[in-house]
Structure formats: structure tokens, C-alpha cells
Inverse folding.
């Protein structure tokens, strides 16, 4: 009902990276268990060819292709451009709208993002929004709960039941002309930006056509793919969870180094519309640096950022949660409401009969075994037996440490009826004099 | 009154390391402010000569004294022995009674402890107990609040008003024959164990009388003194405070390395009767290792140890304190009890008049400025306006993150009379149907 205004996110036959023979009405292959006989039907052979087959052929071809220095430099540069196309473009601009970009920047990012060969902006963002909205559930397209390899490439090389993926609102993307154009012309974009353009640069630039094709084209695609796939695998598997540990996203420097700064992923899942992934200046987030630079140049604007107050609140809450877990594992003594209630007179009588009891803050403690161990000496602790020792214990004679308070609570045996304040007052009345605490 | 059974801890004329001309009845020099004319009267020249003068002479003499390899080894060994005399003997055995020792071990520790030239067991332990009981106050004999140099050697090279030092119970030490004997024969013990014995070993052993005297005697005394003084200075100045940060004691590896393991000083002040200072096996505490070894050999027994439950409680409490401090610095939104109370009908009417209000968990929030920024899209957040959006916000449509809850609380503008549960019930009654939450 709430989602009725959205277009259906069910698979349509026009999706790239999806088998055109797929018919949403027939039972899907993923509804059949995998067996020795049908396993090859579960594999998405087209994706497997793109993600694993072509790079293999590239590796073999590289054996006969000498790597020129200029081509190497160009490969690294184009690796960063196409990587940024995914991280700054597909991810932070379109999937999360964490900032706005002018048309030239949009076109640049749509182009180099296409050169990374990871699907159209529209297809990628839809899956990514489902990943955020349904993280770690069956509706998460690359849930790490299905295994690290599954979240890395398994979800692409094995066939998916498109009905399984959670629905998300992509109406804004459907209204975006650059996104729609790139989606419609996806195959052309991929061929040109993925292979032809890098080959042209190296060929026209310094005559290394073959090197440009193999290194800046095929092998560069392989490395960019593997690096950005790490956001789905490594970033949900390795590192700390300073903001929320209910789900799998984690922060780690290594993931950040591999993914152009997308490695502070626990932060990112908590604050997905922040244009930053790293919030400290010393953390590695070249995607953030690029967006900030484009903003300086007037190419990007409206950079969204959570206030540090909100971020610190998340951190404090997660720390509190951890601390509460630690606390609940410890023995804090018998809870007060489970102790028997004793009359003050009974307490005094029991001590007169030789029991080593001492009342502190309205609670009776059995210190018999502790008297000879007391670091303050036997005499002092004995001087509290049968009395209200609250004041002496809390500074009147000696201001005991937290450790002493904790130790005391393990010796609880009862509560005085009316608590200690009441008793002090009663005795003061009885002895007809003012209440006074000795302060050293 | 409580302390009346203790012997007075005021200075007596028989104390070693104290000017025999001192008369407790006359006004003390420390009651007079230091001026350019009387400063030399404030200096304790005897202590200065022992702590600074003699080592200087030793350094000069070392210039003409070649250091033999065997003497060097012996110096290091004797450094550790006399150091352990202070840490395992004076400190953990006598001052804190953290374990018991058989007579042979007591005699060994009283002897080598004397060789460190830091006063008698009785004098040292009394000051140390005052240091624990009155840490960081004027009654603390070596309070770091008076400066790092003061806590290191200032308290010895400057005259002290003995009346200032806090009183402590040393009746157990007065009953201890080894302690009393060492105190009475202190000068003899110091001369023999500090200088004569190390000289004899090197002289009779390998003929290096002069080297034994200068290196294993004088200079070794200097190093042991400076090292153990670091417990009073460095251990109250450098490092972390995992158990209690109200006072100055701190934990640091460097201090531990310098002081034979006394560097986990925050722990030690919290659990002074524990025979360990380091509780982890990988921390450096050779004093603990020695005591444990003596216990294996039957020389030590009754090693006292706090249960790890008690230790962890202290750690959790300190972490909680830090967290509460962080929490109190953040803005958690207007507290509920400071918000105006609104009728449900008023809330609905205001939204009908165009205000962007949404009620979640009985609290009205103004989300007007947030609608177009909402990461879940305008449509969804708008669908909550003028309604009770508690269930949709908490999982009915989308299970929002902690960050979203925190953000929401900054937008509070009022509370619904009766709270949300009451209103849900009222409406259910009105509409004559069961209450149901949509669960995805
Ligand atoms: C009732 C149970 C008591 C417990 C569990 C207890 C525990 C402790 C502990 C653990 C210490 C070591 C220092 C510290 O951790 O703060 C200590 C020291 C001390 N306690 Fe108690 N105590 C008790 C009662 C008393 C009473 C009734 C008095 C005095 C009337 C007293 C006087 C002292 C003094 C003077 C010290 C300081 C010892 C020193 O460092 O010289 N204690 N106590
Ligand atoms: C009332 C104030 C609201 C605030 C402050 C708020 C805040 C947020 C925030 C910060 C997110 C980002 C993800 C996260 O941090 O969990 C988010 C996502 C979302 N919100 Fe809200 N929200 C509000 C109301 C609503 C309402 C009323 C609905 C639905 C009726 C809704 C539906 C969603 C959905 C579906 C998402 C997921 C977006 C995606 O990742 O695709 N929100 N909201
Ligand atoms: Fe993720
Ligand atoms: Fe994301
Ligand atoms: Fe200390
Ligand atoms: Fe101590």
C-alpha cells in the first residue's frame, strides 16, 4: 500500500546483465535445488564469461604483450577514473544522492563508470538501494550471510531469482536523463569506455594499441571490478563496528585502500547519505577528496554531511551497548529486591551473638571472612560491626575505592527495614541529638 | 577516636633519614615560607648528600675505574636483587601484606631491601600506606599534585613537616620481629648490604674490590633509587587510567619496565592487596613472577588475588564514567518533559493546515525541512504526516537505523496527550477494529 506509487522493481526483459530468456511467470531455476546433473543450469555463464573468462584471456594475452611504461601509467590513471566512476558516481551520487553534480560531471561519471563494466547506473543503484534497505536479509542482493565468496562474485556468476531482490524506489533515477540515456545505450557505453577509449589513448598517444587494449582495457577492467566488488564482500567481513553491530558492515583501512575509500562501511551504512565515508582527515578516502575538489571547482554542490553531534551519538550508543554486554556477564551481587528484609534490632542482636555483620547504606553485609583480610586493619572494620557504617565507609573514616564498594556488594545478606537513612533519623530521635558524620 | 588504638605516627627522634635535632613541639621550618635568605634551611642536606652527592662522587670515581665484565654482570644482578627487595619486600610484602613469606625469605628481602638505601621497612611502609590512604592530598607524603620532580625526589631533598603526613596503622609491622630488627639496626644494614657486601663479592670473587665498590655499590644504589622513585613520580603521571580516574595513578609499560613491574599503578591503587600489579601474562611484572616462583618453592604462601569478576567490574565502571562524560557533551534533543503537550486533534489539524509534522512514539516531530532530503524518498515520509507513524518508522515499512532515531529526536516539537499507545487504542475503539502493525 505505502509502496504503490513506485514502479515495480520486478525484473523486466530489458535489463542488461540478465538472461533475455527469463520469463517472470515461469518457475525460476533457483527454485530447484542444485544437483550434480543440473548445476550448470544454476551458473550464469554470460556473467561468468565477462567476470572470469575475459580476464583469463587477458592474462594469457599479456604473456605476449610487453608492458610499456607509458601504458602502465595510463592503466593506473584509467583504473582510478573508472573506479571513481563507480564510487563517486554510481554509488555516492546516484544510489545515495549524497551530493549534486553539474551536467558535465554527470556525463563524465556516467561515462567512466560505464568503463568499469559493472552494469548500468540504473541497474546498479537499484540493487545497491535494496542492499542498504534489506542488508543481510534474503532480499539483500549480495548478502554476506550467504558467504564471503557469494557476496564478492557469487551473486553474479550464479543465477539469481529476480523476485527475491527487495523492492526500492528508483523514481528519481527514472527521471534522470543521463541515467536513462546510459541505461538505454549501455552496451555501446561499455564497449567504448571499457575497451575502445583506453585503446585509442594508448594507440594514438604512443602507438601502443595492443598494450592499451590488453592492459588499460581488459586487465584494468578486471582489477577495477575485483576492487569495487570488495565493498560487498570485504567491507562486510573485515574490521570494526563503531556505529552498529546488528548488521555486517565493517570499517577497515585495508578495505578502504582497495576500494578508493569505501572501506569505512559501518559508518556508511549508518549514514548512507553522507558524501564522506571516512570522517577523519587522516583516513584514506580519495573518493571524498575528489568530490570535495569538484565542489571547489564548481562541478559539484549540495554536499550532504551529518553533523558530528549525530555521528558521535551513534558511536556513544554502540559503546554503551558493548559495555552493557560486558556488564551483564559479571556478578554484581544479589539484587536488593531478592534480599530478605531484617529489623534493625535483629541485625544488632545477631552481631551481639557473634556474627560479623555490618550495615552500609541500609544493606546488611556478612564480612566475617573478610575481617582478617581487611586492608585497613581488623580494628577498623570491627568498629563498624552492628552499627550503621555508611558514613565511616564512605569517607567518615576512609573513602573506600570503587573496588571496595564492589567487594562489599558481593557480601550482601539483607536489607534493613526502612533503609539506613530512616534508621539514622530514628536513632537521632531516640538519642535526642543532631546527626553528625565524622569527616577527616 | 576510631584511630585511638593505633600508636602515634608523629615523628619520633629515633627515625632514620630524619634530622635528629627535630623537636615536634617547636614550629617547623616548613611553616616558614621559602625566601632567598632561608632557602638552604628548607633543604634536607643529609638526604641530598645521600641521593645526589654520593652518586656524583661515584660518577667521578668511575672515570678512573675500569668496568670489568664480571663486575658489570654482578652489578646488574645485584641491581635486580635490591630492586626486588623494595618491590617484592618493602612494597608488596610489608606495606600491603599481599602475600606471606617464610622467615628465610623475609630475612633475604629485609637484607637486599636495605641494600637499596631507601630507609627502613618500617619507615618506608608507613609513608607508603599514607600515600595509598591519602593519595593526592596534602597528607600524601609524595603527592604528585606538588609536581613531578617533587614526587620523584623533592619530597626527600626538601625538608618535610612530619606532622603533615597522614596517620596509618602500622601495628602489624611493630609486631614483626624482622621489621623491628631491621629498623633498629638500619645503619649497619645499609652499610653492609649497600656497600660492603657488593664490594666483598667482587673483591673475593675476582679481585675487583674497587670496581665492586664503585659499580655494584655506589652507582647501583643510584640506579635502584632512581628506578624505584619512578613509582612515585612516573606512575602517577604517564599512562592510562582503566580503573579509576579520580586520582593520579596510571598504567604504563615504560614505568613497568623501569620499576620491575610496578608500572600498572592504576590497577595497584585500586587493588593494593593483590600480589600482582600486571594481571595479563604478557605484561611485564618480574616482581610478580618472582613471588610466584617463591610460592612454587615453598618460600611464599597466601598470595592474595582479586577475582577477575571484581577487576572487570572496576573496568566496566570506569568505561561507563567516560561514556557518560561523552554522552553529556552531546545534544540529544529537547528533553521530553520540556516539550509542550498537544492534543491529537490539534496535531492532525496543523498537518491539514500544511505543517510537516509526524508523530512517532507519542512525540510530534517537525520534519518540514527534512522531507526533500529523506533517504527513503519524499513519498514515504509524506505518508506518515498527520498519522501515528510509530509502526511504519520502526519496521512496519522500514526499520530505521539508530542514526535515523537520533536525527528524529532533534526534530521534537511536542508530546501527544496520553502518548501514542493511548491514541492507537482510542482510534482502534473509534474505528471499532483491531490494532495491527504492518510487518514486512
Ligand atoms: C564493611 C566492609 C568493608 C570492606 C569491604 C572494606 C574494604 C576495604 C578495602 C578493599 C580497602 C583497600 C583500599 C581500597 O580499596 O579502598 C580498605 C581500606 C581501608 N578500610 Fe575498609 N572496608 C570495610 C569496612 C571498613 C570500615 C568499617 C572501616 C572504618 C571504620 C574501614 C577503614 C578502612 C581504612 C582506613 C582503609 C585504608 C587502609 C590503608 O590503605 O591504610 N573499612 N577497606
Ligand atoms: C519521520 C521522520 C523520518 C526520519 C527522520 C527518517 C530518516 C531516515 C533516514 C536517516 C534514512 C536513511 C537510512 C537509515 O539511516 O536508516 C531513512 C531511510 C528510509 N526511510 Fe525514513 N525517516 C523518516 C520517516 C519515514 C517514514 C514515515 C517512512 C515510511 C513511511 C520512511 C521510510 C524510509 C525508507 C523506506 C528508507 C530506506 C531508504 C533506502 O535505503 O532505500 N521514513 N529514513
Ligand atoms: Fe554494504
Ligand atoms: Fe552504499
Ligand atoms: Fe602510588
Ligand atoms: Fe602500593
Amino acid at each position: 500500500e505505502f509502496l504503490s506509487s513506485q514502479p515495480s522493481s520486478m525484473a523486466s526483459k530489458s535489463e542488461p546483465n540478465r538472461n533475455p530468456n527469463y520469463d517472470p511467470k515461469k518457475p525460476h531455476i533457483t527454485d530447484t535445488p542444485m544437483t550434480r546433473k543440473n548445476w550448470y543450469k544454476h551458473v550464469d555463464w554470460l556473467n561468468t564469461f565477462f567476470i572470469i573468462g575475459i580476464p583469463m584471456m587477458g592474462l594469457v594475452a599479456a604473456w605476449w604483450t610487453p608492458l610499456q611504461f607509458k601504458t602502465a601509467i595510463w592503466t593506473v590513471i584509467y583504473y582510478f577514473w573508472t573506479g571513481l566512476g563507480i564510487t563517486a558516481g554510481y554509488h555516492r551520487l546516484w544510489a545515495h544522492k549524497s551530493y549534486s553534480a553539474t551536467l558535465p560531471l554527470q556525463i563524465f561519471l556516467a561515462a567512466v563508470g560505464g568503463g568499469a563494466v559493472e552494469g548500468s547506473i540504473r541497474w546498479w543503484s537499484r540493487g545497491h538501494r535494496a542492499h542498504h534497505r534489506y542488508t543481510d536479509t534474503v532480499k539483500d542482493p549480495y548478502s554476506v550471510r550467504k558467504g564471503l565468496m557469494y557476496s564478492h562474485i557469487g551473486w553474479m556468476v550464479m543465477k539469481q531469482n529476480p523476485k527475491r531482490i527487495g523492492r526500492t524506489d528508483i523514481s528519481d533515477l527514472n527521471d534522470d536523463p543521463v541515467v536513462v540515456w546510459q541505461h538505454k545505450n549501455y552496451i555501446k557505453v561499455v564497449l567504448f569506455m571499457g575497451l575502445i577509449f583506453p585503446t585509442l589513448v594508448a594507440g594514438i598517444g604512443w602507438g601502443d594499441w595492443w598494450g592499451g587494449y590488453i592492459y588499460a582495457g581488459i586487465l584494468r577492467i578486471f582489477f577495477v571490478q575485483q576492487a569495487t566488488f570488495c565493498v560487498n564482500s570485504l567491507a562486510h567481513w573485515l574490521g570494526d563496528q563503531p556505529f552498529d553491530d546488528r548488521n555486517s558492515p565493517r570499517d577497515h583501512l585495508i578495505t578502504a585502500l582497495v576500494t578508493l575509500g569505501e572501506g569505512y562501511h559501518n559508518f556508511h551504512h549508518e549514514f548512507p547519505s553522507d558524501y564522506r565515508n571516512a570522517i577523519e582527515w587522516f583516513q584514506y578516502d580519495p573518493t571524498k577528496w575528489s568530490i570535495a575538489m569538484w565542489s571547489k571547482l564548481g562541478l559539484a554542490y549540495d554536499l550532504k554531511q551529518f553533523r558530528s553531534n549525530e555521528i558521535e551519538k551513534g558511536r556513544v550508543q554502540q559503546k554503551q551497548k558493548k559495555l552493557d554486554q560486558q556488564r551483564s556477564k559479571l556478578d554484581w551481587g544479589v539484587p536488593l529486591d531478592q534480599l530478605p528484609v531484617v529489623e534493625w534490632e535483629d541485625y544488632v542482636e545477631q552481631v551481639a551473638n557473634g556474627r560479623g555483620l555490618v550495615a552500609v547504606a541500609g544493606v546488611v553485609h556478612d564480612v566475617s571472612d573478610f575481617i582478617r583480610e581487611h586492608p585497613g586493619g581488623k580494628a577498623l572494620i570491627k568498629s563498624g560491626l552492628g552499627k550503621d557504617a555508611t558514613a565511616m565507609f564512605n569517607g567518615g573514616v576512609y573513602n573506600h575505592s570503587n573496588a571496595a564498594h564492589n567487594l562489599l556488594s558481593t557480601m550482601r545478606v539483607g536489607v534493613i527495614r526502612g533503609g539506613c537513612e530512616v534508621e539514622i533519623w530514628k536513632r537521632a530521635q531516640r538519642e535526642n541529638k543532631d546527626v553528625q558524620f565524622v569527616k577527616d
